[in-house]
Design a protein that fits this description.
The complex is a heterotrimer. Chain A is an alpha/beta fold. Chain A is about 35% helix and about 25% strand. In chain A, helix 3 packs across helix 4 and helix 5 packs parallel to helix 6. In chain B, about 65% of the residues lie in helices and about 10% in strands. Chain B has a 5-stranded mixed β-sheet, with helices on both faces. In chain C, helix 3 packs parallel to helix 5 and helix 4 runs antiparallel to helix 5. Helices cover about 35% and strands about 25% of the residues of chain C. Classes of the chains: A alpha/beta, B alpha/beta, C alpha/beta. At the A-C interface, helix 5, helix 6 and helix 9 of A face helix 5, helix 6, helix 9 and helix 11 of C.
Chain lengths: ~260, ~375, ~325
């Protein structure tokens, strides 16, 4: 079985600054993998490399069986992507967004119609399907964005901070959609800064200063580091002396993002 | 398998939808070019009409009367007055009440009859060198056709027109542009920049904090606006120095008056900028509003580049509402004609009234609450 | 401070923007030296409420007094005594750290020196960067600077609208430590947050959802408002267990909660242990051999979800 994501000593430098420092990990098919780290830890750079938007300085990585450096276009065709900052076009209707993304990913008209209808049914949108996305509440936009991201049934879907600012029930409904997709064999690679959400994942990794500081199932990590929640582990790894009580800004000692 | 064309079609369809649904931008993109075509079409006309003419005819005779009738019958000229002496003509030019003056020498008809050269002096206001030369040409044409008439009747006549371009004898274009450029620079620094600065404060959220403080709205406005006034002042000085040193633009009037008038105009721009910022919700909208509401009308409708006289009749009253129009009258008057307060008090009063009106409007739009 | 009346009193405040109801009959009070939290997701009306209390908006109905002053009539008196930190940090990115502070101090007619001892515990953490442009700071430092700017004029009450949003977990903790010490010094603080776990750091909390208050209480006491019996369910196949439990006759709701599922049962009179064993039996019968069921105390998030009812519908 090919690994959905296979990363080996992946590195990215910007001049003198090493944003991603030789990280190695893999994700199996159908896993829900949580990719965690503080802002500036190198998370965003790593993801950009995995989705073929940024070339690595050294090391290699393959997504859905394709190499990110030499087969970037193939990678992009076999993955889905959703981010908090952008996903759907506000001034297009739900159906129009479905048609657009379906078309971009090369689905046939029949496929677009059938899958679009199924999506609208599953989300119980009804007539809202013909309204502009801007009219939807935030939680629905998120759920819709996820559904559209997997419309073309990609092998791997990347979710960049997908839930934010919604009520706890809607957030859990979103995660149930993730579970359902994983159960169907889609690999889900998600980043989030809600550390309680990290516990929904099968396995997580925590990046600090460009390196992976911890990786494993939530249960393993909590046991190993003797903490009750991943939040505590995160604090411990990101700012080692914060737990000692001093509030000096050390790990981001430069004060920069 | 890659399906290239459906992806492209899907993408283009999306773009079309975006364009059609952005009503604001769509209106601007469709209407603005139309407006510009119409405006430029009219403004770029080469002919000048309604040329205001003053005659000086100390000893009217059949020839001078006939010539005067020819001028008035021509259709391009509009009779303003007949002055007794050449010295009186200056007043009309300084006040801006006449465009062309035609001065007949005494004993005009007699000289014609005797076959000796009869002189006519044609003076044009060449502050705008383009119109100046054209008006000159029309006047000469009228005279030439009358001469041809007389010649055809068998008499050997010679009319010798002497031409003078008032205020701008060498027809320097830069003399035309500099007053307009000062107005443009002032509009840019004041209206555009204050609009952007204020709306940026709004967008950033810091305006909220400023409001929830002892600061009163007028203090916020003045604090924001005053630095731009100083900047505008510096810009005027630089522009004038450049014009004087590099381009040798004449400076016949009072510099103090020009600087004061510039400050007055700058304040009008600032008030306008504040008003625009108070009424718009984003920096982008503020910039768009400032450009279409101040820069564009100032460039097209103020007489800066295109003479107001060339604009269609229905558009000319509209120019009264453009502050730049009045400032350019003042600037040209001071720089090229060397006139002072006595002649320029009207446009100055107009600007002052505009300032008070816009300031009241701006202060009222800038509420101490968000809604 | 005014004699006996609490520093913040909100009574029946409602506000709507066209057809959208932003606030619906909101009432609560904040006492001296109290850290009061408004907890709930976006769109809950928290920002609108802050703006009304900061005298930036007028309520459609109801009344509110800040430090004994009416938000409608005594606008200017309130504005000089309130420390306000609206969302998104609201700093001047092209000014330096110290320049920002001095500016905000001067706006209130005071100086950085006069307010220094109050902001020292916070400011000391960013003082080494005092010449750096505020736009070049990390999220956590911007947050500390924004708090300093809100405090430098020694306000009598503090309004913080989502001060921890977009900030990393460590900085968030440090921020709440700072708020604790400010409250201990007597300052009443009203703070809003979408993070349920931060609710536990407040003295009292108002749960807000779509403009309405669901409950007001101390965080520990909120659990008592949970209407059903709550159980934690563990097992490897979470998703399948989730769907199975939803078919169970006594189920009120089942939600994923990290590594567990939280299952709420309608049989509130029965013994918790007995119910747990019944549910376990049901799961085992469905083939989940490694399932575990244990009764637990409801937390803030459980209570919030039970009280909020259904989430917002897709059609407005």
């Amino acid at each position: 079985m090919t690994l959905a994501i296979d990363v080996h000593e992946l590195t990215r430098r910007f001049g003198n600054f090493t944003a991603v420092d030789s990280i190695t990990f893999h994700v199996e098919e159908g896993e829900v993998f949580g990719f965690l780290g503080a802002n500036g830890a190198g998370k965003t750079t790593a993801i950009k490399m995995l989705i073929g938007l940024l070339a690595p300085t050294s090391g290699r990585a393959s997504v859905a069986g394709y190499d990110v450096l030499t087969q970037a276009e193939e990678v992009r065709r076999h993955i889905g992507y959703m981010s908090q900052r952008f996903s759907l076009y506000d001034d297009l209707t739900v159906r129009e967004n479905i048609t657009l993304y379906g078309g971009i990913y090369g689905l046939t008209d029949t496929q677009i119609r059938e899958r679009g209808d199924a999506l609208i049914r599953d989300l119980r949108l009804g007539k809202t399907a013909d309204e502009r996305v801007s009219a939807l509440p935030l939680g629905w936009k998120q759920k819709l964005a996820f559904s559209v991201a997997i419309l073309h049934q990609p092998a791997v879907v990347f979710l960049d901070e997908p839930t934010g600012g919604v009520d706890p029930i809607t957030r859990r409904q979103f995660w149930e959609m993730i579970y359902a997709a994983a159960a169907r064999g889609t690999t889900v690679f998600v980043t989030t800064h809600y550390l309680d959400e990290a516990e929904y994942c099968d396995r997580v990794s925590i990046m600090v200063d460009g390196r992976i500081a911890a990786m494993g199932t939530p249960e393993e990590l909590k046991r190993e580091h003797r903490v009750a929640t991943l939040d505590e582990l995160f604090v411990r790894l990101a700012r080692p002396d914060a737990t000692a009580g001093t509030a000096a800004d050390h790990s981001s000692a430069s004060g920069y993002e | 398998m890659t399906h290239r064309s459906p992806a492209l079609t899907a993408f283009m369809t999306k773009e079309v939808r975006h364009i059609l649904r952005d009503r604001q931008t769509l209106t601007i993109l469709l209407l603005l070019p139309l407006a510009m075509v119409v405006l430029f079409g009219f403004a770029l006309r080469n002919d000048v009409n309604d040329i205001r003419i003053v005659f000086v005819d100390p000893a009217p005779d059949y020839a001078t009367t006939a010539l005067r009738d020819r001028f008035l019958g021509n259709g391009r000229f509009e009779w303003v007055a007949t002055a007794p002496a050449a010295a009186d003509v200056e007043q009309f030019f300084r006040r801006g009440n006449a465009d062309v003056a035609v001065v007949f020498e005494q004993g005009f008809a007699g000289r014609l009859a005797a076959g000796t050269p009869a002189r006519i002096l044609v003076v044009s206001d060449a502050s705008d060198p383009n119109t100046g030369s054209r008006m000159q040409a029309y006047a000469i044409a009228v005279i030439a056709s009358y001469q041809a008439e007389l010649g055809a009747a068998g008499r050997g006549v010679r009319i010798v027109p002497e031409t003078r371009m008032r205020f701008n004898p060498t027809l320097e274009s830069v003399n035309l542009f500099v007053p307009g450029l000062i107005a443009l620079v002032l509009t840019l620094v004041t209206a555009l920049m204050t609009a952007i600065s204020l709306s940026r404060e709004k967008e950033r959220g810091t305006l909220e904090i400023l409001l929830v403080s002892p600061l009163r709205p007028w203090q916020i406005i003045v604090g924001k606006v005053l630095p731009y006034l100083l900047l505008a002042f510096a810009n005027v000085i630089t522009a004038l120095l450049a014009a004087w040193i590099i381009f040798r633009v004449p400076f016949r009037g009072s510099i103090t008056l020009l600087l004061l008038a510039s400050m007055l105009y700058a304040m009008v721009g600032l008030a306008l900028g504040v008003f625009i910022a108070a009424r718009t919700s984003s920096q982008r909208a503020a910039m768009l509003g400032a450009l279409t509401g101040t820069m564009l009308p100032s460039t097209l409708l103020s007489g800066m580049i295109f003479p107001i006289a060339s604009l269609p009749g229905w558009l000319q009253p509209v120019t009264f509402a453009i502050p730049a129009r009045w400032f350019i009258i003042i600037a040209r008057g001071i720089m090229l004609k060397g006139v002072g307060l006595a002649y320029l008090w009207q446009p100055i009063v107009v600007l002052a009234v505009m300032l008070v009106f816009l300031m009241l409007l701006a202060i009222r739009s800038f509420k101490p609450r968000l809604a | 401070m005014n004699g006996g009346s609490p520093p913040l009193v909100v009574q029946g405040v409602s506000k709507r923007f066209e057809e959208v109801v932003a606030l619906d009959d909101v009432s609560f009070e904040v006492a001296r030296a109290e850290l009061f939290g408004l907890v709930g997701p976006d769109g809950g009306g928290k920002t609108t409420l802050f703006r009304i209390l900061a005298t930036l908006l007028l309520p459609d109905s109801g009344s509110a007094t800040v430090l004994g002053l009416d938000v409608v009539r005594d606008m200017w008196a309130i504005r000089s005594r309130v420390g306000y930190m609206p969302g998104r940090f609201s700093l001047y990115p092209d000014l330096g750290v110290e320049e920002n502070l001095r500016f905000f101090a001067s706006v209130f007619g005071t100086t950085l020196e006069e307010g220094y001892d109050l902001i020292a515990p916070i400011y000391r953490q960013i003082e080494p960067f005092r010449d750096r442009r505020a736009g070049a700071l990390s999220g956590g430092m911007k947050q500390k600077l924004a708090l300093s700017c809100a405090l430098v004029h020694r306000p009598d009450i503090l309004f913080l609208d989502e001060p921890t949003t977009g900030v990393d977990a460590v900085s968030r903790r440090e921020f709440w430590d700072l708020l604790d010490s400010l409250r201990d010094s007597g300052l009443p603080i009203l703070v809003s947050t979408p993070y349920m776990d931060e609710a536990s750091r407040c003295d009292r909390v108002a749960l807000m959802q779509q403009g309405r208050i669901l409950a007001i209480d101390a965080p520990e006491a909120l659990g008592a408002r949970f209407p059903d019996r709550l159980f934690a369910v563990r097992g490897r196949d979470r998703y399948a267990m989730l769907q199975a439990l939803r078919g169970y006759p006594h189920a009120v709701s089942t939600f994923p909660f990290g590594e567990e599922l939280h299952y709420s049962d309608s049989r509130t009179d029965a013994d918790a242990g007995a119910t747990a064993r019944e549910v376990l039996g049901f799961l085992r019968s469905k083939g989940f051999a490694d399932a575990e069921v244990a009764p637990i105390e409801p937390g803030i998030e459980d209570t919030f979800m039970a009280l909020m009812g259904a989430p917002e519908a897709a059609a407005a």
